[in-house]
Design a protein that fits this description.
The chain is mainly alpha-helical and 133 residues long. The chain has one domain: Zincin-like (2-Layer Sandwich), CATH 3.30.2010. It is built from 6 helices and 3 strands, in the order H-H-E-H-E-E-H-H-H. The chain has a 3-stranded mixed β-sheet. Helix 1 crosses helix 5. InterPro entries: Zincin_1, Zincin_1_sf. This is Metallopeptidase family protein.
Length: 133
């Protein structure tokens, strides 16, 4: 049984993401700027197609927007930056692993997507994570 006594909802994951964001060091939070965090069950089929993915269970998070390294004050206003957390794949990973709390997993996915907001690639993010261990 989990803390919720039921399957955690989108609102539950959104709350965990807000709490994780608030725990980040203030200079880091300020550098993130305006990024909306959205929780949905799965990525839209168009998003999966754009990423060349077939299985929605394989995507637990996504950064959407122009990353900070590619922005210029001379550019027109970019689309809003958003981080999507996909509840069902996150819950499946959480249940399958059994070695990490849900809040910690949400925090991990959120920080990964914030890394993309800062212009880091998956390889960059994994290298940082590997160096931390």
């Amino acid at each position: 049984m989990n803390l919720y006594g039921r399957e955690p909802s989108n609102d539950d994951l959104a709350q965990l993401a807000r709490e994780a964001f608030e725990r980040l060091p203030e200079p880091f939070r300020l550098a993130v700027g305006a990024v909306a965090i959205r929780v949905t069950d799965f990525a839209e089929p168009e998003v999966l197609a754009d990423l060349g993915m077939d299985d929605p269970w394989d995507l637990s998070g996504l950064y959407s927007g122009v990353d900070l390294t590619r922005r210029s004050i001379l550019d027109p206003l970019p689309e809003p930056s958003e981080i999507f957390l996909y509840r069902r794949p996150i819950l499946a990973e959480w249940a399958g692993r059994g070695d990490i709390g849900l809040g910690r997993l949400v925090e991990h996915v959120l920080i990964h997507e914030i890394g993309h907001h800062f212009g880091l690639s998956d390889d960059d993010i994994h290298a940082i994570e590997d160096g931390r261990r």
